[in-house]
Every structure is written in C-alpha cells, then in structure tokens.
Specification:
The chain is mainly alpha-helical and 338 residues long. The chain has helices spanning 2-24, 27-40, 44-56, 64-77, 81-94, 101-114, 118-131, 138-151, 155-168, 175-283, 293-331. Helix 6 (101-114) runs parallel beside helix 8, helix 7 (118-131) packs antiparallel against helix 8 and helix 9 (155-168) runs antiparallel to helix 10.
Length: 338
C-alpha cells in the first residue's frame, strides 16, 4: 500500500513538473504567436505590445531575436521607417543564426526601397539573391530591384527584371504587379518618344522664330536705310527747286516794295493835283457864270489827270493784291518757306 502511495505521489510530482514546465516554457512562444496574429490582422498596437512584452522578460531571451524582427516589421507597417531600420539592423547584427535572418535580409532591401535609397536597395537585394539563390523571397527580391530601377529611370533594366519575374516566377503573386509595370514602361517609352518629338518640334520652332527675328531685324534696318536715302535724295532733288522759289520770292518782295513806293508817289501827285484843282475852282470869278476858256482848259486837264492817276492807283492796288497772293502761295501763310 505504501508502495502504491509512493508511486502515485511520484506520478503526481512528475505530472505537476511537466505541467509547470509546459506553462512556463511556451510563454514566449505564445506571446510571439499572439503578436504575429495581431500583426496579420493589422492590429499593430496589440502586436507591438506583445513583442515588447517578450523583450521585457529576460526569461524569454530565446524569443528576443524573433521579437526584434517583428518589431521592425511592425514599424515598417506603421511607416516609421527610422525605428524600423534601427531594430532590423540590431536584429541582423545580434541574431545571425535566427530562423528569420533570411527574411530579415530581404526586408532590409524592401526597407531601403521605402526609404527611397534605390541604388542601395538594388545592391543589397543583389547580394541577397547571390547568398540565397533558392530563397522563397526570390521573386519579391527581383520585383523590388525592378521597382528601384524604375524609380531611378533605368527603364531598360527595369523592363528586363519585370520580364524575368513574369517568366521565371509565374506562380508568384508579384506577377500581376510586374505585368502592370511592363505596361507602364511601354507607356513611358511612348511618352519619351513624344517628349523627344515635342522637344524637337519646339527647338525647330525656336530656331525658325530666331531666324525670322533676325530677318525681320535686317528688313527693318534696310527699310530705315532706304528711308534715310529717300529723305536725302528728296532734299537733293528739290534743293534746286527750293533755291529757284526763294529767288522768285525775293524778286517778288523787291517788286512789291517798289510798287508800294510808286503808290506813295502817286498818292502825293494825286493830292497835289487835287489841291491845284481846288485852287483853280476858288480863283474862278464865278461858278455859275462859267469859267474862262483858259481856266476851263486847265481844270479839265487836271480833272483828266486825276482820273488817270486814280486808274493807275487802282491798277497798282490790284497788282499789289496779286503779289501778296502769289507770295502766300510760295512762302506760306505764316511767312515760312514751304
């Protein structure tokens, strides 16, 4: 009986020990699984809390490497790339034998792409593919190399990489994305051709416009030269005519001056004769009885002479009027030579 009790007691101890070991040993594994499940459901806050809980427990140091890897991925999902880079680099440096090390190397290449370090991304993933040629992340690695080359504008290189993904990894979920990029690259080629054509057309237009402006400037200068020559020739052609007209004006002015002098002389003569006629009339013995024959003769002669002087004066006035009109036509209404 005592032996049975002893065996039962030992069995209970072993069972308790096994149960205690079962409860303590998988604690980190449970937290890791819960964190990964939350990550896959995009519940990144819960995932981060579970992974941090693993790191906070020194007894779970066997799971610390895994926790650092998943914390880095969680930061990448949250687009907190700097924190992701720090945790991923720490993981790669401190846990080279971790089961996630190959995936971590791939995720570093993807992280470099997200950080827009395209050249570094291509170099890193190229090293990754050489180190892990049969990696299940091979199609993804090639795809991100193609994306990085595309972002750098290296379309020929990107086209080759995407075509390689489509032909060599037909079952990969990256195939459709690679085909889409190939279509985009074809459009890019057409766009580049169109831009080259537009640039060539624009350059030809600018060249034609510049040539036209040069010709226009030459034409304008030629026109100005012709205008200056025409003005000079006009001056020379009419110079003789102007000189002749000037001489005629001066002659007319002299003639007009002489006519005015003659007019003054006639006025004096007329006044003298009128005075003489008046004197004869006063000295006549009788205006009603008639005038002596000699008086009549003198008075008639004076009267006739006065009439002639009046006619001559009117003729001079007409001549002066004509000369003034002629002078205005030649010299101008304001006395300036035209």
């Amino acid at each position: 009986m005592s032996r049975k009790v002893t065996l039962v007691f030992l069995g209970l101890i072993l069972l308790t020990a096994s149960l205690t070991g079962a409860d303590s040993a998988p604690r980190g594994d449970i937290l890791l699984k819960e964190g990964i499940e939350a990550f896959q459901q995009a519940d990144y806050q819960v995932a981060m809390y579970r992974f941090r809980e693993i790191l906070a427990n020194p007894q779970e140091r066997n799971f610390h490497g895994d926790a650092y890897f998943w914390i880095a991925r969680t930061y990448m999902a949250l687009s907190r790339l700097e924190e992701a880079s720090k945790h991923l680099e720490y993981f790669l440096d401190k846990y080279p034998d971790n089961p996630y090390i190959m995936e971590g190397m791939y995720e570093k290449g993807r992280l470099l792409f997200l950080q827009r370090q395209f050249s570094e991304c291509i170099e890193h993933l190229d090293r990754f593919l050489k180190k892990y040629p049969d990696s299940p992340y091979g199609a993804n690695a090639y795809y991100w190399i193609g994306e990085a080359a595309f972002s750098l504008g290296r379309l020929k290189e990107a086209e080759k990489i995407f075509h390689f993904v489509v032909t060599q990894f037909p079952a990969s979920f990256r195939v459709e994305a690679a085909r889409y990029r190939l279509d985009i690259i074809k459009l890019k080629y057409r766009e580049e051709e169109l831009m080259k054509l537009l640039q060539w057309s624009h350059e030809e237009h600018l060249k034609a416009l510049e040539e036209f402006q040069k010709r226009e400037a030459v034409y304008l200068e030629t026109i100005k030269t012709y205008q200056r020559r025409i003005a000079l020739l006009s001056t020379q052609d009419f110079q003789g005519e102007i000189l002749k007209l000037s001489e005629q004006v001066r002659a007319l002015e002299n003639e007009l001056s002489q006519a005015r002098k003659n007019e003054e002389t006639l006025k004096v003569e007329k006044a003298t004769l009128e005075n003489a006629l008046m004197k004869l009339r006063v000295e006549s013995p009788s205006m009603k009885g008639g005038i002596e024959s000699s008086g009549i003769t003198d008075a008639a002669a004076i009267k006739n002479l006065l009439e002639l002087l009046q006619v001559k004066q009117e003729a001079l006035a007409l001549k002066e009027e004509y000369l003034q009109k002629l002078k205005k036509e030649i010299i101008g209404p304001e006395g300036k030579k035209e």
